[in-house]
Amino acid sequence: MATMKTILLIFVMAISTAAVISVHDNFFEKTKTSEKYTHIHLYVHIAFSGSNPSAVTVVHGPTNKTLEFGDITVVDNPITEGPELSSKLIGRDQGTYTGVSRDPESSKAVNLISVLLVFTDGAHKNNTIALTGRDPIFSVERELIVVGGTGAFRLARGYSIWKIYSLRHRLGELILTGEAVVTARTKS
């Protein structure tokens, strides 16, 4: 009797496994994908002060100095096609910069950046790209990782290189130029 139950159990498990494999294979046959590479060049305008700041420190570190370990800055910066703020607005750079370096020298300040590039116009309208990475603030160049996105950039991966285009320290204005290389899956 026990042998019959064992044989029946093995039979049921084999049938169930075959059904799952069949459904699984069928799913991937219907959703074949290919990869598309996209190169994006853009400008991000950051205003740390003035009448309409786009980057606001909402939490200060223990010493209340600028660029301090523990600072959390929330950003909603305009993204444009050209370096002038008056050039075509194509989106917003939204997210946070978090001070993560405990080094007491401000020249060695480092932020952890976690932002979304939210495209509101142009070729990538209604899509987003998620970026994160280490930002040594006073470096000439920094690299952020593409970790995902929405719309055409679903399951995106890649990298972006950022450089300071212009810095007007007294006015609290910074313009970054960015190049992103993004790979995302597209349905065939």
TrEMBL record:
Keyword Transcription regulation recorded: no
Matches recorded under InterPro entries: Allene_oxi_cyc_Dirigent (IPR044859), Dirigent (IPR004265)
Pfam families per record: Dirigent (PF03018)
Keywords of this entry: Apoplast, Secreted, Signal
Domain of life of the source: Eukaryota
GO-annotated biological processes: phenylpropanoid biosynthetic process
Signal peptide range: 1-19
Summary of the function given for this chain in its UniProt record: Dirigent proteins impart stereoselectivity on the phenoxy radical-coupling reaction, yielding optically active lignans from two molecules of coniferyl alcohol in the biosynthesis of lignans, flavonolignans, and alkaloids and thus plays a central role in plant secondary metabolism.
Subunit field text: Homodimer.
Protein name: Dirigent protein
